[in-house]
Amino acid sequence: QKEVEQDPGPLSVPEGAIVSLNCTYSNSAFQYFMWYRQYSRKGPELLMYTYSSGNKEDGRFTAQVDKSSKYISLFIRDSQPSDSATYLCAMSSGADSGNTPLVFGKGTRLSVIA
Amino acid sequence: NAGVTQTPKFRILKIGQSMTLQCTQDMNHNYMYWYRQDPGMGLKLIYYSVGAGITDKGEVPNGYNVSRSTTEDFPLRLELAAPSQTSVYFCASSYITSGAQETQYFGPGTRLLVL
Predict the structure, then answer these.
(1) How far apart are CA A103 and CA A107, in angstroms?
(2) A105:B42 CB<8 A
(3) pLDDT above 90 covers what percent of chain B?
(4) Which of A1, A6, A21, B26 has a Cα at 20 to 30 A from A103?
(5) pLDDT at residue A98 above 70?
(6) Do the Cβ atoms of A42 and B97 come within 8 Å?
(7) Is the minimum CB–CB distance between B45 and chain A shorter than 8 Å?
(8) Burial (CB count <10 Å: 0-12, 13-18, 19+), residue A38
(9) Three-state SS across chain B?
């Protein structure tokens, strides 16, 4: 089993839809969870991060972490064509746990159709 | 701040040629990374460095070498280019301290084609 699993899509939705992106993981030591957004032919950029379990909201974006199920989600409300990108989840155990590098999912390609 | 810069943006190599991909960051970050990204395969860690003079292998180090003589620079060397090294290469950096979460900042990437 891979350490981080992410459905690669592609996912195509109409403008205004609610989008749900998900990752599962196997390492129970992970406690920092991030979502990166990557536009075509660009480098990834940090979109959201969450420490441990819980929710975090930033505008139209909500990140959720369920450590008991080893499952994280990113929700995008009122999706816009400008949200069309590849979304990568990433996670780590943190500097206090030996600081292994971030582990990335393969990314989900999202297209929002106007 | 320019952030993380990479050169060149694009390069075509012949099999067996060598080249160095340059990466520089101006954020005084202690950690630096090299990834390769193949279509549909996500980011694979090649090498990383926790500070000047210290490097370590990632998931796919074969065929590559790195050095870190300064905090700012982290070049990636391909000695004998092979078609399997055709990919997009991303350099990233982060500042990690005890108890802090890690945010990696990525460069714009170098597209490499080996023919």
Answers:
(1) 12
(2) yes
(3) 81
(4) B26
(5) no
(6) no
(7) yes
(8) buried
(9) CCCEEEECCEEEECCCCCEEEEEEECCCCCEEEEEEECCCCCEEEEEEEEECCEEEECCCCCCEEECCCCCCECCEEECCCCHHHCEEEEEEEECCCCCCCCCCEECCCEEEEEC
pLDDT at A70 over 60: yes
pLDDT bucket at A63, cuts 50 / 70 / 90 = very high
Contact with chain A for residue B101, Cβ under 8 A? yes
pLDDT above 80 (res B1): no
Q: How many helices (H) and strands (E) does chain A have?
A: 0, 11
Residue A96, classed as helix, strand or coil, is helix
Q: Between β-strands B87-94 and B64-66, what pairing exists: parallel, antiparallel or unpaired?
A: unpaired
- pLDDT value at A99 more than 70: no
Name the amino acid, one letter, at B88. V
Mean pLDDT (chain B) is 92
Please give the pLDDT value at position B103. 80
